[in-house]
Amino acid sequence: xxxxxxxxxxxxxxxxxxxxxxxxxxxxxxxxxxxxxxxxxxxxxxxxxxxxxxxxxxxxxxxxxxxxxxxxxxxxxxxxxxxxxxxxxxxxxxxxxxxxxxxxxxxxxxxxxxxxxxxxxxxxxxxxxxxxxxxxxxxxxxxxxxxxx
Length: 149
What we know:
This protein is 42% helix and 17% strand. The longest helix has 15 residues, at 43-57. The protein has one domain (2-123): Phosphotransferase system, mannose-type IIA component (Rossmann fold, 3-Layer(aba) Sandwich). It is of the alpha/beta class and 149 residues long. It starts with a strand and ends in a 26-residue tail after the last helix. Helix 1 (12-24) links the parallel strand 1 and strand 2.
């Protein structure tokens, strides 16, 4: 099984982890690692330790970061380069995490999970709109009971 680390600025990681487990149920091998403002000096070690611990317990680790170029992403990339089967993906969102969560027990490669994460990301983003419907404001008109409410 591939382990997952969710990381990002502020409470992003714990919020996403909470939403993920609310929908997918409790998950072994999924850890949220937060980056708070006062942790700039120690965050790299905190994240690297979490990756090492999870890598020891799983077949590989996929690190899901909030955005490219931020401290969580940069520190994850530095930690990943010294370990085998540890990969990093940035721009994580809930649909991506859910899709990858369904695959992780079957996959033996963190790389495969991250490639699929990027594909799932595109499927989870959409722009939707609803056309405004003009309503008849004639107060004398009663609804036909057959039309419903």
